[in-house]
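agent> call fold_tool(seq_1)
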Amino acid sequence: MKMADTASSNSVHMEKGWGALRQHIIDNKIKAALWVTRLFTIIFTIGYIIQIFGNPYNIYYKILMNNAATSALRLHQRVPHVQLNRQFLERLFVEDSCHYLLYSLIFLYTAPVTLVLTPIFLFALMHFASDSLTLLDCLGQNSWWGARLLISLIEFQSRNILRLCGLFEIIILPFTVLLVFTGRASLLTPFIYFQFLKFRLASQRNPFTRNVFYEIRNGLSSVSRKPTVPIIIRQIIEGLLSLTQQMAPLRQ
Protein backbone atom coordinates (compact mmCIF):
# COMPACT_ATOMS: atom_id res chain seq x y z
CA MET A 1 0.00 0.00 0.00
CA LYS A 2 2.79 2.38 0.90
CA MET A 3 4.58 1.59 -2.36
CA ALA A 4 1.41 2.41 -4.29
CA ASP A 5 1.07 5.72 -2.43
CA THR A 6 4.71 6.54 -3.16
CA ALA A 7 4.29 5.76 -6.87
CA SER A 8 1.11 7.84 -6.97
CA SER A 9 2.89 10.73 -5.23
CA ASN A 10 5.80 10.56 -7.69
CA SER A 11 3.37 10.53 -10.60
CA VAL A 12 1.56 13.62 -9.31
CA HIS A 13 4.88 15.35 -8.69
CA MET A 14 6.01 14.57 -12.24
CA GLU A 15 2.75 15.85 -13.70
CA LYS A 16 3.06 19.05 -11.72
CA GLY A 17 6.65 19.49 -12.95
CA TRP A 18 5.81 19.05 -16.60
CA GLY A 19 2.65 21.08 -16.13
CA ALA A 20 4.69 23.93 -14.64
CA LEU A 21 7.11 23.72 -17.56
CA ARG A 22 4.27 23.80 -20.08
CA GLN A 23 2.70 26.79 -18.34
CA HIS A 24 6.04 28.60 -18.23
CA ILE A 25 6.44 28.13 -21.99
CA ILE A 26 2.88 29.39 -22.62
CA ASP A 27 3.49 32.45 -20.44
CA ASN A 28 6.92 33.17 -21.96
CA LYS A 29 6.59 32.36 -25.65
CA ILE A 30 9.41 34.66 -26.78
CA LYS A 31 11.81 33.25 -24.19
CA ALA A 32 10.90 29.74 -25.33
CA ALA A 33 11.50 30.73 -28.95
CA LEU A 34 14.88 32.19 -27.97
CA TRP A 35 15.78 28.90 -26.26
CA VAL A 36 14.96 27.03 -29.49
CA THR A 37 16.90 29.39 -31.80
CA ARG A 38 19.93 29.26 -29.51
CA LEU A 39 19.74 25.48 -29.40
CA PHE A 40 19.74 25.33 -33.20
CA THR A 41 22.66 27.78 -33.32
CA ILE A 42 24.69 25.47 -31.06
CA ILE A 43 23.73 22.33 -32.99
CA PHE A 44 24.42 23.88 -36.39
CA THR A 45 27.78 25.28 -35.26
CA ILE A 46 28.91 21.89 -34.01
CA GLY A 47 27.61 20.33 -37.23
CA TYR A 48 29.48 22.93 -39.30
CA ILE A 49 32.78 22.24 -37.54
CA ILE A 50 32.64 18.44 -37.69
CA GLN A 51 30.54 18.41 -40.91
CA ILE A 52 27.78 16.00 -39.93
CA PHE A 53 24.85 17.83 -41.56
CA GLY A 54 25.86 17.71 -45.21
CA ASN A 55 26.87 20.88 -47.01
CA PRO A 56 28.80 23.09 -44.52
CA TYR A 57 28.32 26.11 -46.80
CA ASN A 58 24.55 26.01 -46.24
CA ILE A 59 24.95 25.29 -42.52
CA TYR A 60 27.15 28.37 -42.11
CA TYR A 61 24.42 30.69 -43.37
CA LYS A 62 21.78 28.86 -41.31
CA ILE A 63 23.84 29.72 -38.22
CA LEU A 64 23.89 33.38 -39.19
CA MET A 65 20.14 33.36 -39.88
CA ASN A 66 19.48 31.65 -36.54
CA ASN A 67 21.54 34.32 -34.82
CA ALA A 68 19.61 37.03 -36.70
CA ALA A 69 16.33 35.47 -35.55
CA THR A 70 17.60 35.30 -31.96
CA SER A 71 18.72 38.93 -32.09
CA ALA A 72 15.41 40.07 -33.61
CA LEU A 73 13.40 38.26 -30.92
CA ARG A 74 15.58 39.68 -28.16
CA LEU A 75 15.33 43.15 -29.68
CA HIS A 76 11.54 42.81 -29.70
CA GLN A 77 11.72 42.03 -25.98
CA ARG A 78 13.89 45.04 -25.23
CA VAL A 79 12.18 47.53 -27.58
CA PRO A 80 8.63 46.25 -28.14
CA HIS A 81 7.05 49.46 -29.47
CA VAL A 82 8.25 50.69 -32.86
CA GLN A 83 8.29 54.45 -33.35
CA LEU A 84 9.47 56.51 -36.30
CA ASN A 85 11.57 59.10 -34.52
CA ARG A 86 15.17 59.83 -33.60
CA GLN A 87 14.81 58.81 -29.96
CA PHE A 88 13.61 55.34 -30.98
CA LEU A 89 16.58 54.86 -33.32
CA GLU A 90 19.00 55.99 -30.63
CA ARG A 91 17.47 53.53 -28.19
CA LEU A 92 17.58 50.80 -30.86
CA PHE A 93 21.28 51.19 -31.60
CA VAL A 94 22.37 50.95 -27.97
CA GLU A 95 20.86 47.46 -27.67
CA ASP A 96 23.29 44.55 -27.87
CA SER A 97 20.71 42.51 -29.77
CA CYS A 98 20.62 45.19 -32.47
CA HIS A 99 24.41 45.00 -32.72
CA TYR A 100 24.32 41.26 -33.34
CA LEU A 101 21.47 41.54 -35.80
CA LEU A 102 23.77 43.87 -37.75
CA TYR A 103 26.63 41.39 -37.25
CA SER A 104 24.61 38.60 -38.88
CA LEU A 105 23.63 40.81 -41.81
CA ILE A 106 27.26 41.84 -42.38
CA PHE A 107 28.50 38.28 -42.79
CA LEU A 108 25.50 36.95 -44.69
CA TYR A 109 27.11 38.64 -47.70
CA THR A 110 30.66 37.31 -47.28
CA ALA A 111 32.26 33.92 -47.86
CA PRO A 112 32.10 31.48 -44.91
CA VAL A 113 34.72 32.15 -42.22
CA THR A 114 34.78 29.95 -39.10
CA LEU A 115 36.19 32.77 -36.95
CA VAL A 116 32.97 34.75 -37.49
CA LEU A 117 30.91 32.02 -35.80
CA THR A 118 32.94 32.05 -32.57
CA PRO A 119 31.21 34.91 -30.70
CA ILE A 120 27.82 33.75 -32.01
CA PHE A 121 28.39 30.25 -30.63
CA LEU A 122 29.73 31.48 -27.27
CA PHE A 123 26.83 33.88 -26.70
CA ALA A 124 24.31 31.20 -27.72
CA LEU A 125 25.92 28.65 -25.38
CA MET A 126 25.97 31.02 -22.40
CA HIS A 127 22.38 32.23 -22.78
CA PHE A 128 21.11 28.74 -23.65
CA ALA A 129 22.60 27.45 -20.40
CA SER A 130 20.94 30.22 -18.39
CA ASP A 131 17.55 29.68 -20.06
CA SER A 132 17.84 25.91 -19.62
CA LEU A 133 18.35 26.35 -15.88
CA THR A 134 15.05 28.25 -15.68
CA LEU A 135 13.29 25.43 -17.53
CA LEU A 136 14.85 22.80 -15.26
CA ASP A 137 13.69 24.73 -12.20
CA CYS A 138 10.13 24.34 -13.49
CA LEU A 139 10.62 20.56 -13.45
CA GLY A 140 11.96 20.59 -9.90
CA GLN A 141 15.08 21.53 -8.01
CA ASN A 142 16.52 18.00 -8.08
CA SER A 143 15.80 17.13 -11.71
CA TRP A 144 18.47 16.54 -14.35
CA TRP A 145 21.47 17.00 -12.05
CA GLY A 146 23.91 16.18 -14.88
CA ALA A 147 22.58 19.03 -17.02
CA ARG A 148 22.66 21.32 -13.99
CA LEU A 149 26.33 20.48 -13.46
CA LEU A 150 27.18 21.42 -17.06
CA ILE A 151 25.18 24.64 -16.75
CA SER A 152 27.00 25.57 -13.53
CA LEU A 153 30.35 25.05 -15.26
CA ILE A 154 29.32 27.35 -18.11
CA GLU A 155 27.98 30.01 -15.74
CA PHE A 156 31.17 29.79 -13.65
CA GLN A 157 33.13 30.70 -16.81
CA SER A 158 30.66 33.39 -17.96
CA ARG A 159 33.08 36.30 -17.42
CA ASN A 160 35.82 34.52 -19.36
CA ILE A 161 33.35 33.70 -22.13
CA LEU A 162 32.30 37.36 -22.38
CA ARG A 163 35.93 38.49 -22.46
CA LEU A 164 36.66 35.95 -25.19
CA CYS A 165 33.68 37.21 -27.21
CA GLY A 166 35.00 40.75 -26.86
CA LEU A 167 38.46 39.67 -28.01
CA PHE A 168 37.07 37.98 -31.12
CA GLU A 169 34.90 41.01 -31.92
CA ILE A 170 38.07 43.12 -31.98
CA ILE A 171 40.20 40.59 -33.87
CA ILE A 172 37.60 40.24 -36.63
CA LEU A 173 38.00 43.92 -37.66
CA PRO A 174 41.50 43.55 -39.20
CA PHE A 175 40.41 40.13 -40.44
CA THR A 176 37.66 41.74 -42.56
CA VAL A 177 40.37 43.75 -44.32
CA LEU A 178 42.15 40.50 -45.21
CA LEU A 179 38.84 39.13 -46.53
CA VAL A 180 38.60 42.08 -48.91
CA PHE A 181 42.12 41.47 -50.27
CA THR A 182 41.37 37.77 -50.77
CA GLY A 183 38.12 38.55 -52.56
CA ARG A 184 35.91 36.96 -49.90
CA ALA A 185 34.18 40.18 -48.82
CA SER A 186 33.17 43.48 -50.39
CA LEU A 187 34.94 46.80 -49.84
CA LEU A 188 32.08 47.93 -47.60
CA THR A 189 32.47 45.04 -45.14
CA PRO A 190 35.36 46.53 -43.04
CA PHE A 191 33.62 49.92 -42.84
CA ILE A 192 30.30 48.45 -41.73
CA TYR A 193 32.06 46.15 -39.27
CA PHE A 194 33.99 49.15 -37.93
CA GLN A 195 30.63 50.74 -37.07
CA PHE A 196 29.49 47.49 -35.43
CA LEU A 197 32.63 47.45 -33.28
CA LYS A 198 32.04 51.08 -32.24
CA PHE A 199 28.56 50.07 -31.10
CA ARG A 200 30.05 47.18 -29.10
CA LEU A 201 32.64 49.43 -27.46
CA ALA A 202 29.89 51.82 -26.40
CA SER A 203 27.61 49.04 -25.10
CA GLN A 204 25.83 49.93 -21.86
CA ARG A 205 25.05 46.32 -20.88
CA ASN A 206 28.29 44.59 -21.83
CA PRO A 207 31.55 46.34 -20.86
CA PHE A 208 33.78 43.36 -21.67
CA THR A 209 34.58 44.32 -25.27
CA ARG A 210 35.50 47.81 -24.10
CA ASN A 211 37.68 46.47 -21.27
CA VAL A 212 39.53 44.07 -23.59
CA PHE A 213 39.99 46.89 -26.10
CA TYR A 214 41.65 49.10 -23.47
CA GLU A 215 43.84 46.21 -22.30
CA ILE A 216 45.05 45.63 -25.87
CA ARG A 217 45.76 49.35 -26.31
CA ASN A 218 47.65 49.54 -23.02
CA GLY A 219 49.65 46.42 -23.93
CA LEU A 220 50.61 47.83 -27.32
CA SER A 221 51.51 51.16 -25.72
CA SER A 222 53.82 49.39 -23.25
CA VAL A 223 55.49 47.46 -26.08
CA SER A 224 56.06 50.60 -28.16
CA ARG A 225 57.88 52.28 -25.26
CA LYS A 226 60.48 49.52 -24.95
CA PRO A 227 63.88 50.67 -26.23
CA THR A 228 64.54 47.30 -27.90
CA VAL A 229 61.54 47.64 -30.26
CA PRO A 230 62.58 48.58 -33.85
CA ILE A 231 61.57 52.05 -34.99
CA ILE A 232 59.35 50.79 -37.79
CA ILE A 233 57.40 48.53 -35.37
CA ARG A 234 57.07 51.44 -32.93
CA GLN A 235 55.69 53.66 -35.70
CA ILE A 236 53.18 51.00 -36.76
CA ILE A 237 52.00 50.56 -33.17
CA GLU A 238 51.72 54.33 -32.62
CA GLY A 239 49.75 54.59 -35.85
CA LEU A 240 47.33 51.90 -34.66
CA LEU A 241 46.94 53.58 -31.28
CA SER A 242 46.24 56.91 -32.95
CA LEU A 243 43.74 55.32 -35.34
CA THR A 244 41.81 53.59 -32.53
CA GLN A 245 41.97 56.45 -30.02
CA GLN A 246 38.47 57.73 -30.74
CA MET A 247 36.78 54.35 -31.20
CA ALA A 248 35.75 53.78 -27.58
CA PRO A 249 34.27 56.27 -25.13
CA LEU A 250 36.45 57.50 -22.30
CA ARG A 251 36.51 55.23 -19.25
CA GLN A 252 34.61 56.59 -16.28
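agent> call fold_tool(seq_2)
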Amino acid sequence: MTISQIVVVGAGVMGRGIAYVSALAGFHTIVVDVSEQILQQAYQHAKETAEKGVDRGKLSVEESLNLLNHLHTSSNLETAVVDADLIIEAVPEKRNLKQQILEVADTHAPKHAILASNTSTISPTELGSYTKRPDQLAVMHFFNPVHKMRLVEIVRGLETSDETVRMIGETAEKMGKETVEVNEFPGFVTSRISALVGNEAFHMLQEGVASAEDIDKAIRLGLNYPMGPLELGDLVGLDARLNNLRYLHETLGEKYRPAPLLEQYVKAGRIGRKAGKGVYDYTADGEMVKK
Protein backbone atom coordinates (compact mmCIF):
# COMPACT_ATOMS: atom_id res chain seq x y z
CA MET A 1 0.00 0.00 0.00
CA THR A 2 1.14 3.53 -0.80
CA ILE A 3 0.08 6.44 1.38
CA SER A 4 -0.91 9.40 -0.77
CA GLN A 5 -3.89 10.97 1.03
CA ILE A 6 -3.71 11.97 4.70
CA VAL A 7 -6.54 13.31 6.83
CA VAL A 8 -5.65 15.24 9.98
CA VAL A 9 -8.50 15.53 12.47
CA GLY A 10 -8.27 18.66 14.61
CA ALA A 11 -7.04 22.03 13.36
CA GLY A 12 -5.58 23.31 16.61
CA VAL A 13 -1.91 24.01 17.21
CA MET A 14 -0.79 20.41 16.67
CA GLY A 15 -3.26 19.47 13.95
CA ARG A 16 -2.46 22.43 11.74
CA GLY A 17 1.25 21.79 12.22
CA ILE A 18 0.89 18.15 11.19
CA ALA A 19 -1.21 19.16 8.19
CA TYR A 20 1.49 21.66 7.18
CA VAL A 21 4.33 19.12 7.12
CA SER A 22 2.07 16.57 5.44
CA ALA A 23 1.18 18.92 2.59
CA LEU A 24 4.79 20.11 2.33
CA ALA A 25 5.87 16.49 1.85
CA GLY A 26 3.52 16.21 -1.12
CA PHE A 27 0.69 14.25 0.48
CA HIS A 28 -2.84 15.25 -0.50
CA THR A 29 -3.87 16.56 2.91
CA ILE A 30 -7.29 17.32 4.37
CA VAL A 31 -7.48 18.95 7.79
CA VAL A 32 -10.83 18.46 9.53
CA ASP A 33 -12.41 20.48 12.31
CA VAL A 34 -15.96 21.28 13.43
CA SER A 35 -15.14 25.00 13.41
CA GLU A 36 -14.93 26.76 10.06
CA GLN A 37 -13.18 29.67 11.76
CA ILE A 38 -10.44 27.41 13.13
CA LEU A 39 -10.07 25.79 9.70
CA GLN A 40 -9.59 29.20 8.12
CA GLN A 41 -7.02 30.07 10.77
CA ALA A 42 -5.20 26.80 10.11
CA TYR A 43 -5.00 27.47 6.36
CA GLN A 44 -3.88 31.06 6.97
CA HIS A 45 -1.24 29.81 9.40
CA ALA A 46 0.07 27.41 6.76
CA LYS A 47 0.20 30.22 4.20
CA GLU A 48 2.04 32.58 6.56
CA THR A 49 4.48 29.87 7.68
CA ALA A 50 5.24 29.02 4.06
CA GLU A 51 5.77 32.70 3.23
CA LYS A 52 8.21 33.03 6.12
CA GLY A 53 9.99 29.91 4.85
CA VAL A 54 10.40 31.52 1.43
CA ASP A 55 11.63 34.79 2.96
CA ARG A 56 14.26 32.92 4.99
CA GLY A 57 15.38 30.75 2.10
CA LYS A 58 14.04 27.55 3.65
CA LEU A 59 11.43 27.00 0.91
CA SER A 60 11.29 27.86 -2.76
CA VAL A 61 8.29 29.72 -4.16
CA GLU A 62 7.35 26.53 -6.03
CA GLU A 63 7.46 24.46 -2.83
CA SER A 64 5.28 27.02 -1.08
CA LEU A 65 2.68 26.95 -3.85
CA ASN A 66 2.71 23.14 -4.01
CA LEU A 67 2.16 23.00 -0.25
CA LEU A 68 -0.94 25.18 -0.44
CA ASN A 69 -2.23 23.22 -3.44
CA HIS A 70 -1.97 20.00 -1.43
CA LEU A 71 -3.72 21.41 1.65
CA HIS A 72 -7.52 21.31 1.94
CA THR A 73 -10.04 21.78 4.74
CA SER A 74 -13.32 20.11 5.67
CA SER A 75 -15.83 20.26 8.51
CA ASN A 76 -17.28 16.84 7.66
CA LEU A 77 -15.22 13.94 8.99
CA GLU A 78 -17.38 11.24 7.41
CA THR A 79 -16.83 12.49 3.85
CA ALA A 80 -13.23 13.61 4.41
CA VAL A 81 -11.97 10.10 5.22
CA VAL A 82 -13.65 8.14 2.41
CA ASP A 83 -10.44 8.05 0.31
CA ALA A 84 -7.91 8.36 3.12
CA ASP A 85 -4.82 6.18 3.38
CA LEU A 86 -3.79 7.56 6.78
CA ILE A 87 -5.92 9.36 9.35
CA ILE A 88 -4.09 11.22 12.11
CA GLU A 89 -6.24 12.18 15.09
CA ALA A 90 -4.91 15.35 16.75
CA VAL A 91 -7.77 16.46 19.01
CA PRO A 92 -7.43 17.37 22.73
CA GLU A 93 -6.48 14.69 25.25
CA LYS A 94 -10.04 13.67 26.08
CA ARG A 95 -10.83 9.97 25.83
CA ASN A 96 -14.49 10.42 24.89
CA LEU A 97 -13.62 12.81 22.08
CA LYS A 98 -10.87 10.58 20.73
CA GLN A 99 -13.18 7.58 20.89
CA GLN A 100 -15.85 9.43 18.93
CA ILE A 101 -13.36 10.52 16.25
CA LEU A 102 -11.83 7.07 15.87
CA GLU A 103 -15.19 5.31 15.68
CA VAL A 104 -16.39 7.61 12.90
CA ALA A 105 -13.11 7.32 11.01
CA ASP A 106 -13.12 3.54 11.37
CA THR A 107 -16.66 3.32 10.01
CA HIS A 108 -16.19 5.54 6.96
CA ALA A 109 -12.54 5.11 5.95
CA PRO A 110 -11.39 2.47 3.42
CA LYS A 111 -10.45 -0.93 4.83
CA HIS A 112 -6.77 -0.37 4.07
CA ALA A 113 -6.57 2.98 5.91
CA ILE A 114 -4.22 3.29 8.86
CA LEU A 115 -5.37 5.16 11.98
CA ALA A 116 -2.91 7.12 14.08
CA SER A 117 -3.24 9.27 17.18
CA ASN A 118 -1.07 12.21 18.14
CA THR A 119 -1.80 11.53 21.81
CA SER A 120 1.07 12.19 24.21
CA THR A 121 -0.20 9.92 26.99
CA ILE A 122 -3.15 7.67 26.14
CA SER A 123 -2.64 3.96 25.48
CA PRO A 124 -2.72 2.93 21.80
CA THR A 125 -4.18 -0.40 22.90
CA GLU A 126 -7.10 1.46 24.44
CA LEU A 127 -7.47 3.65 21.35
CA GLY A 128 -7.35 0.59 19.12
CA SER A 129 -10.18 -0.99 21.08
CA TYR A 130 -12.48 1.78 19.84
CA THR A 131 -12.10 0.45 16.29
CA LYS A 132 -12.50 -2.76 14.31
CA ARG A 133 -8.92 -2.48 13.03
CA PRO A 134 -6.66 -2.37 16.13
CA ASP A 135 -3.86 -3.91 14.07
CA GLN A 136 -3.94 -0.78 11.87
CA LEU A 137 -3.66 1.76 14.69
CA ALA A 138 -0.63 3.23 16.45
CA VAL A 139 0.42 6.44 18.15
CA MET A 140 2.21 8.95 15.92
CA HIS A 141 3.34 11.57 18.42
CA PHE A 142 4.59 14.83 16.88
CA PHE A 143 6.16 17.74 18.76
CA ASN A 144 5.42 21.44 18.77
CA PRO A 145 6.22 23.41 16.63
CA VAL A 146 5.74 20.54 14.20
CA HIS A 147 7.52 22.14 11.23
CA LYS A 148 10.67 22.65 13.32
CA MET A 149 10.78 19.65 15.67
CA ARG A 150 12.37 16.61 14.05
CA LEU A 151 11.05 13.78 16.23
CA VAL A 152 8.02 11.52 15.92
CA GLU A 153 7.44 8.90 18.61
CA ILE A 154 5.81 5.74 17.24
CA VAL A 155 4.04 3.67 19.89
CA ARG A 156 2.40 0.37 19.02
CA GLY A 157 -0.56 -1.11 20.86
CA LEU A 158 -0.96 -4.75 21.80
CA GLU A 159 -2.35 -5.65 18.36
CA THR A 160 -0.55 -3.11 16.16
CA SER A 161 1.00 -4.88 13.18
CA ASP A 162 4.60 -4.54 12.04
CA GLU A 163 3.29 -3.30 8.69
CA THR A 164 1.41 -0.46 10.36
CA VAL A 165 4.52 0.63 12.24
CA ARG A 166 6.57 0.42 9.04
CA MET A 167 4.10 2.51 7.05
CA ILE A 168 3.85 5.18 9.76
CA GLY A 169 7.65 5.30 10.00
CA GLU A 170 8.04 5.74 6.25
CA THR A 171 5.40 8.47 6.21
CA ALA A 172 7.12 10.35 9.04
CA GLU A 173 10.44 10.11 7.21
CA LYS A 174 8.87 11.56 4.05
CA MET A 175 7.76 14.47 6.24
CA GLY A 176 11.40 15.01 7.16
CA LYS A 177 11.15 13.49 10.63
CA GLU A 178 13.33 11.16 12.68
CA THR A 179 11.45 8.37 14.47
CA VAL A 180 11.82 6.33 17.63
CA GLU A 181 9.76 3.25 18.45
CA VAL A 182 8.58 3.25 22.06
CA ASN A 183 6.98 0.45 24.04
CA GLU A 184 3.52 1.23 25.33
CA PHE A 185 3.62 2.74 28.81
CA PRO A 186 1.87 5.82 30.25
CA GLY A 187 3.54 8.99 28.98
CA PHE A 188 5.85 7.10 26.60
CA VAL A 189 9.35 8.71 26.82
CA THR A 190 9.18 12.42 26.09
CA SER A 191 5.88 13.25 27.81
CA ARG A 192 7.07 11.75 31.10
CA ILE A 193 10.25 13.81 31.11
CA SER A 194 8.61 16.99 29.84
CA ALA A 195 5.78 16.75 32.36
CA LEU A 196 8.22 16.36 35.26
CA VAL A 197 10.38 19.30 34.17
CA GLY A 198 7.40 21.56 33.49
CA ASN A 199 5.72 20.67 36.77
CA GLU A 200 8.92 21.28 38.74
CA ALA A 201 9.27 24.68 37.06
CA PHE A 202 5.79 25.58 38.33
CA HIS A 203 6.72 24.42 41.84
CA MET A 204 9.80 26.67 41.75
CA LEU A 205 7.74 29.60 40.49
CA GLN A 206 5.21 28.97 43.25
CA GLU A 207 7.95 28.80 45.89
CA GLY A 208 9.59 32.01 44.71
CA VAL A 209 12.86 30.32 43.80
CA ALA A 210 13.22 32.64 40.79
CA SER A 211 11.11 34.63 38.35
CA ALA A 212 9.51 32.85 35.39
CA GLU A 213 11.96 34.59 33.07
CA ASP A 214 14.99 33.47 35.07
CA ILE A 215 13.74 29.89 35.47
CA ASP A 216 13.33 29.62 31.71
CA LYS A 217 16.66 31.35 31.04
CA ALA A 218 18.46 29.01 33.46
CA ILE A 219 17.06 25.92 31.73
CA ARG A 220 17.77 27.25 28.22
CA LEU A 221 21.34 28.32 28.91
CA GLY A 222 22.30 25.94 31.72
CA LEU A 223 20.80 22.72 30.34
CA ASN A 224 20.80 23.69 26.65
CA TYR A 225 17.04 23.30 26.19
CA PRO A 226 15.77 25.15 23.10
CA MET A 227 12.89 26.61 25.14
CA GLY A 228 12.30 27.08 28.86
CA PRO A 229 9.69 24.80 30.50
CA LEU A 230 7.31 27.65 31.34
CA GLU A 231 7.54 29.05 27.81
CA LEU A 232 6.89 25.57 26.48
CA GLY A 233 3.88 25.15 28.76
CA ASP A 234 2.39 28.34 27.38
CA LEU A 235 3.04 27.15 23.84
CA VAL A 236 1.40 23.72 24.17
CA GLY A 237 -1.32 25.02 26.49
CA LEU A 238 -1.33 24.85 30.27
CA ASP A 239 -4.67 23.07 30.12
CA ALA A 240 -3.11 20.34 28.00
CA ARG A 241 -0.13 20.15 30.35
CA LEU A 242 -2.48 19.84 33.34
CA ASN A 243 -4.52 17.08 31.66
CA ASN A 244 -1.32 15.13 30.95
CA LEU A 245 -0.11 15.51 34.53
CA ARG A 246 -3.44 14.37 35.93
CA TYR A 247 -3.32 11.25 33.76
CA LEU A 248 0.30 10.51 34.71
CA HIS A 249 -0.49 11.13 38.38
CA GLU A 250 -3.33 8.66 38.13
CA THR A 251 -1.27 6.00 36.34
CA LEU A 252 2.31 6.51 37.58
CA GLY A 253 1.94 7.97 41.03
CA GLU A 254 2.62 10.86 43.34
CA LYS A 255 5.64 12.40 41.63
CA TYR A 256 3.33 13.60 38.83
CA ARG A 257 0.84 15.40 41.10
CA PRO A 258 0.18 18.78 39.39
CA ALA A 259 1.62 21.87 41.07
CA PRO A 260 -1.14 23.90 42.78
CA LEU A 261 -0.07 27.03 40.88
CA LEU A 262 -0.59 25.26 37.56
CA GLU A 263 -4.09 24.25 38.67
CA GLN A 264 -4.74 27.87 39.66
CA TYR A 265 -3.59 29.27 36.32
CA VAL A 266 -5.87 26.93 34.40
CA LYS A 267 -8.86 27.75 36.62
CA ALA A 268 -8.22 31.43 35.91
CA GLY A 269 -8.22 30.82 32.16
CA ARG A 270 -4.52 31.61 31.90
CA ILE A 271 -3.79 28.66 29.62
CA GLY A 272 -1.08 30.10 27.40
CA ARG A 273 -0.59 31.69 24.01
CA LYS A 274 -3.94 30.57 22.61
CA ALA A 275 -5.70 32.55 25.36
CA GLY A 276 -3.35 35.53 25.20
CA LYS A 277 -2.12 34.91 28.73
CA GLY A 278 -0.46 32.10 30.63
CA VAL A 279 2.73 32.36 32.63
CA TYR A 280 3.49 35.22 30.24
CA ASP A 281 1.30 37.76 28.42
CA TYR A 282 0.97 37.68 24.64
CA THR A 283 -0.09 40.06 21.93
CA ALA A 284 -2.94 39.30 19.53
CA ASP A 285 -0.53 37.60 17.11
CA GLY A 286 0.91 35.38 19.83
CA GLU A 287 4.17 37.25 20.44
CA MET A 288 5.36 37.42 24.03
CA VAL A 289 5.04 40.83 25.68
CA LYS A 290 8.46 41.91 26.87
CA LYS A 291 8.59 43.37 30.38
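agent> summarizing second result for user.
The domain at 5-183 is CATH 3.40.50.720 (Rossmann fold). Residues 36-55 form the longest helix (20 residues).
agent> awaiting next instruction.
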